[in-house]
Every structure is written in structure tokens, then in C-alpha cells.
Amino acid sequence: MSESQDAEKKKLLIVDDDERFAERLSRAMDRRGFEPVIANSVADGIRLAHSESQEYAVVDLRLQDGSGLDVVKAIHESSEDARVVVLTGYGNIATAVAAVKVGALDYLPKPADPDQVAATLLQSSADGDMPPPPELPMTADRVRWEHIQRVYEQCDRNVSETARRLRMHRRTLQRILAKYAPHA
């Protein structure tokens, strides 16, 4: 690659504790004109955010050592104009609002499509407040499954408590939890 092409690449920080996912996303974003750097923890993400300003970032919400929102805050402390997208496998309205309040552009479900991530990062604010609808939105079955998984995790993986909160029979919940996630 020539030096002029390297100069045109946009600096991108990827913070995700799933190393395989982070590597795949890094390669995909490199092909889309970004120069990715990977951090696998909140501590590494904050260190990289403070060591050099980031133009763009993709941050997982839940990391082994804490919340990705702490990384988003650190990125905006060192670079107010940074464009940050938060990814998560367990989305809910409260965390989406929290992500936007600390400076995230958008909140996307995992596994995120690299084209959608790039489009969200590069979307100009003149395009309006709402991002374009996803090309392949989650099915109703997938949304239901994600909701059940989120409540299950919030109940510390306690099946009885999760069933009580979801107002469903415990055995029905066990059957749902035993199945794989429906396709997006």
C-alpha cells in the first residue's frame, strides 16, 4: 500500500474482549479504509484512548474488567470529536440511552455487520438524527431471544427468577434457553 493511501486511513480503536471477533472486525474495517488498533479490556482501551487521540472507535459494552462506557468517556476526554459506536450482545433501552449520553453515535447488536459499523461511523450529522434502517434487521424471534437472554443474565443465570420476571413457566424457559439463537 502506498504512503498516500496509509495517510488517508482513518484511525480506529476496537475494544472487545472477544479476541476472535475483534480480529475479524479489524481485518474487515482495514479493508474499508480504517487503520484499526485492538484493545481487549477496559484498562487497555482507556490507556490507548489517552495515549493518542482516536478519530473512530467501536467499543463492546460488556468487557471482562468492566463497562465499555468507561472507555467511551475516556475517548471523548482526549478527543471530543471522536465518533464511537457501542456494540453489545445484550441490548436494552437503558444501556442504549447511557451509551448515547456518554457520547456514542449509535448502539448496534452483536455480531455487527462491518458495512453497518462503517456506515454508522462515517454517517455525517447532516444526514439527520436517525441512522438509516439496517439492511437485515433482527427477526421478531431473535429480538425475543435477545430479551430473554438479557433478563437471564441480569438474574445471574437463575432460571426460576428469570421465569418469574418474564411471567413464563420455568420449563418453557428452560427449553428456550437450551436452543441456539434464531438467525438474525
Automatic annotation (TrEMBL):
Modified residues annotated as 4-aspartylphosphate in this record: D60
Protein known as: Chemotaxis protein CheY
CDD domains linked: REC_RegA-like
Originating species: Kiloniella litopenaei
Highest taxon of the lineage: Bacteria
Domain (Response regulatory) ranges: 11-125
Keyword Phosphoprotein tagged: yes
InterPro entries the record matches: ActR_PrrA_rreg, Bact_response_regulator, CheY-like_superfamily, HTH_Fis, Sig_transdc_resp-reg_receiver
Pfam families: HTH_8 (PF02954), Response_reg (PF00072)
Gene Ontology biological process terms in this record: phosphorelay signal transduction system
